[in-house]
Automatic annotation (TrEMBL):
It is a multi-pass membrane protein. This is L-fucose:H+ symporter permease. It comes from Emticicia soli. Keywords: Cell membrane, Membrane, Transmembrane, Transmembrane helix. It holds the Pfam family MFS_1. InterPro entries: Lfuc_symporter_FucP (IPR005275), MFS (IPR011701), MFS_dom (IPR020846), MFS_trans_sf (IPR036259), MFS_TsgA-like (IPR050375). The keyword DNA damage does not apply. The keyword Iron-sulfur does not apply. The chain crosses the membrane at residues 20-41, 61-80, 89-107, 113-130, 151-169, 189-207, 243-265, 277-296, 308-327, 333-355, 367-386, 392-411. PROSITE patterns: MFS.
Length: 418
């Protein structure tokens, strides 16, 4: 029996607490996989601007279909896992991920922008399954009092993926000369074929590895509520104010991520007049800083409450983006590097704070917070339109306002009402 205090529930498993180590390592590997997938979007954004002669706002369709898939699939993923469990949810996600990656090949052969976007959408449906499963799974594979730290530790390895994505894009996708439409499409085939194969191998590991299916038990009152209708469950879930505010905070957080990460290459090329290869390398450096920030944040949570650290990190982001919007040259790029450091802990910390003490609503609440990732689809086109009509520096003011709210959520809105 693994007991989790504070959540008014216990989680039972045939395995002891120590047997959570291997499952936790496997789940942690998933964070690397979607880190790579998401950071590759930032390369694709600039790549298709050049090869298909798209505007900034038009190229953000890669963000729209990817992050939009989270909105459409997160709730079905949660319902799937409620019936079939975490392990089958992860396997379903891996199969969708690999299918989308493999479909990039025929899409590129057809030289179809629409087919390519469909491939990304299917891949992202897999990401939605993985995130809906892995985030809450990581939080319950151990004591409740360390759930935020544990999720931040797992998500730290997401940083390895986001570092490698731009490097792969710089070496395999970008070219020194102007590519034709055919060459532009073919250049994305190899990276996604490799990824599809790797995903299938990882799926095999999950299939053959015993994974503790953590069962939720609760009070007699909670057990009776398990048979409640979906609408009644929604009503009970949305009575948790910290969850509602957290879902909106995640919507804004991923919106900022989609904006700043997606337009980073454009921003630094405009600020310091470098090639897209060099800009992609700088993006990888920013992702390295992002990963370091995760490890530093995880360490600091031993001494600082997660919600307080989220508040201060968010204020750091507000300051960094204000500087980036108002100055030119190298200082603007330095400011964005500071942004990467402070944004490192925001996703897992908002997630953990949002699902805290949800009890029997944890899986459903997780689905809604993952649905908030649609912010990555909603805001990049808006920021791209601002950049197209004013300047990319001016467009940086949009995420400033968004993170002002997240700072408030960290300090105040995330507190659980008793």
């Amino acid at each position: 029996m693994a007991s989790i205090s504070g959540n008014k529930q216990s989680f039972q498993s045939n395995s002891s607490q120590n047997n959570y180590l291997v499952p936790f390592i496997l789940v942690t590997s998933l964070f690397f996989l979607w880190g790579f997938a998401i950071s590759m979007l930032d390369v694709l954004n600039k790549h298709f601007q050049d090869t298909l002669n798209l505007t900034i706002s038009q190229s953000t369709w890669v963000q729209i279909v990817t992050y939009g898939a989270y909105f459409l699939m997160a709730l079905p993923a949660g319902i799937f896992m409620k019936k079939w469990g975490y392990k089958k949810g992860i396997l379903a996600g891996l199969l969708l991920y690999s299918s989308g990656a493999f479909l990039v090949y025929p899409a590129s052969e057809a030289q179809s922008w629409t087919f390519f976007l469909v491939s990304l959408f299917i891949l992202a449906c897999g990401l939605a399954f993985l995130e809906t499963a892995a985030n809450p799974y990581a939080t319950v594979l151990g004591p409740a009092e360390s759930s935020e730290r544990r999720l931040n530790l797992a998500q730290s390895f997401n940083g390895l993926g986001v570092i490698i994505g731009p490097l792969v894009g710089s070496k395999l996708v970008f070219s020194e000369h102007q590519l034709s439409v055919e060459e532009g499409f073919k250049s994305v085939q190899l990276p996604y074929m490799i990824v599809g194969g790797v995903i299938l191998v990882i799926a095999l590991f999950f299939l053959r590895t015993p994974m503790p299916e953590i069962q939720e038990t609760s009070s007699a009152e909670d057990k009776a509520a398990e048979n409640a209708s979906f609408s009644e469950s929604l009503s009970g879930l949305f009575k948790n104010k910290h969850f509602v505010l957290g879902a909106f905070a995640q919507f804004l957080n991923v919106g900022v991520q989609g904006c700043v990460w997606g337009l980073f290459i454009n921003f630094v090329m405009d600020a310091i007049h470098i090639t897209k290869h060099s800009a992609a390398d700088l993006l990888s450096l920013g992702m390295l800083i992002f990963m370091i920030g995760r490890f530093v944040g995880t360490f600091l949570m031993k001494y600082v409450k997660p919600n307080v650290l989220l508040g201060f990190y968010s204020l750091g982001i507000v300051a960094a983006l204000l500087v980036a919007s108002q100055v030119q040259g190298q200082p603007a790029v330095y400011a964005l590097m500071v942004f990467f450091f402070f944004q490192s802990i925001t996703f897992p910390t908002i997630f953990s704070l949002g699902v805290k003490d949800l009890g029997k609503y944890t899986k459903l609440g997780s689905s809604f917070i993952i649905m908030g990732i649609v912010g990555g689809a909603a805001f990049p086109p808006l920021m791209g339109a601002i950049a197209d009509n004013t300047s990319i520096s001016t467009s940086m003011l949009l995420p400033v306002a968004m993170f002002a709210y997240i700072a408030w959520y960290g300090f105040s809105g995330s507190k659980v009402s008793k």
